[in-house]
Design a protein that fits this description.
By secondary structure, the chain is mostly helical. It is 69% helix and 0% strand.
């Protein structure tokens, strides 16, 4: 399925791990636009509203509930314009996931730079309603992607949506629900889909992220655990992981900010604060309304 330029730009601006706050509530007046030309104009309106009406969080942290409602309303508007696009509900699932991660304070870089958070994880208090809503969005995305792939097995958009779903679900299972083996299954499946997608289209640079995340994040485990993970079919090559993350960070579309953020985390783990600061400064300039980038930058000494 081919999107208009404005629809691509509309989705891309909110598909990073910390971009839930980037959209606004100016969707309702676009819902009646159904023709190709009207969809193009709707994309323009949505993009402009996202820039002009979203909460200004440069000085004040936005209300989480308000931001979440705005994000879900925006994705609902996109789903109305493109009801058969599996990336739409996958994006809505991302909004549920990242809002819950923000509530539980998992979106701070210090969570990922302290190994004790993984070796001795603290018990969290997940929101069951958020998980249920997340599961419904994931199921809708999988249904639409499965239908598209049944008729066209090389549908790049459907493969990308499937890749997103596996990545999002692995994050929810691993970081929030602490179901690590289940998360590992989704990580491996997502990487396999990414490799298939790159075989079909080597320029689909966002797909490199799945390979990069698996290799880099699992490379942080202890040697005995890495050996076990390799036996289970996982990849744990740190160098390969960082190389793939850099590809998405340089050439990606939807997931480019996410890849750049992960590289900032990697720099912090390597005690390279200068590199981390440079990345976070660029992200803060690109997304001035996103409070989390600014907060991470302020944490650096």
């Amino acid at each position: 399925m081919k999107r208009t330029y404005h629809e691509q730009d509309f989705l891309a601006s909110d598909m990073s791990i910390l971009a839930v706050a980037n959209f606004s509530i100016g969707v309702c007046r676009c819902l009646a636009m159904t023709g190709a030309g009207e969809r193009r104009r709707a994309g323009q309106i949505l993009r402009r509203d996202a820039l002009e009406k979203r909460p200004n969080v440069g000085r004040k942290r936005p209300d989480r509930a308000l931001v979440a409602r705005a994000a879900h309303k925006t994705f609902s508007g996109y789903a109305h314009l493109q009801p058969n696009d599996p990336v739409g509900p996958a994006s809505d699932a991302a909004a549920y996931l990242f809002a819950e991660m923000d509530r539980l304070h998992i979106l701070q870089s210090e969570f990922f730079t302290h190994d004790d958070n993984f070796r001795h994880p603290k018990k969290l208090n997940p929101d069951r309603n958020a998980r249920q809503a997340f599961n419904l969005s994931v199921a809708q995305s999988e249904k639409l992607a499965g239908s598209a792939l049944a008729s066209s097995p090389q549908d790049r958009n459907a493969l990308f949506a499937s890749l997103l779903v596996h990545g999002l679900r692995s994050d929810y299972d691993g970081l929030i629900d602490k179901r690590y083996l289940t998360a590992l299954t989704d990580v491996k499946t997502g990487r396999q889909i990414a490799e298939k997608l790159l075989t079909i289209d080597p320029t689909f640079y966002d797909a490199h992220l799945a390979v990069g995340v698996e290799n880099y994040m699992l490379s942080l485990k202890t040697a005995p655990l890495r050996w076990f993970l390799q036996l289970a079919g996982a990849e744990t090559d740190r160098t390969r992981g960082l190389e793939r993350l850099r590809i998405t960070a340089q050439k990606g579309n939807y997931l480019k900010p996410y890849a750049r953020l992960l590289l900032a985390v990697a720099a912090l783990r390597d005690m390279d604060k200068m590199q981390a600061r440079e990345i976070l400064q660029d992200l803060t300039k690109q997304f001035p309304h996103n409070h989390l980038y600014a907060e991470e930058l302020a944490r650096l000494p």
